[in-house]
Description:
Helix content: over 70%
Radius of gyration: 29 Å
Number of strands: 0
Number of domains: 1
Order of helices and strands: HHHHH
Strand content: under 5%
Largest sheet: none
Amino acid sequence: xxxxxxxxxxxxxxxxxxxxxxxxxxxxxxxxxxxxxxxxxxxxxxxxxxxxxxxxxxxxxxxxxxxxxxxxxxxxxxxxxxxxxxxxxxxxxxxxxxxxxxxxxxxxxxxxxxxxxxxxxxxxxxxxxxxxxxxxxxxxxxxxxxxxxxxx
Length: 152
């Protein structure tokens, strides 16, 4: 999906007058001189290096800076989304594990607060949260033991 978004960004960068809103959104935060200069230059024919080498270099450098700026922003969005998704999955996994452990402990005690647990309800919540935190570690340990046992 990010490849298609990058293609759309390249299209907007190549044709800022056709897609001005997308162009301005993607370049927000870049140097304002680059944004306005490229917007104007993109509507004209490219300057030949034989006619004006300095202007041709400025145009090429401006395009490269804006393109790299957009790529860095899209990479940052992708990394941030992946980090948030991973963190959300970990939190959900821990809370689900804690809820299952709490329910299991209550079920084993006949639906009442276990008497052998110090701290009452608070103790039950602490033990459940600790179990939820340790559940992914225990799963990885069981998988490693299965691999070792099977000789893989």
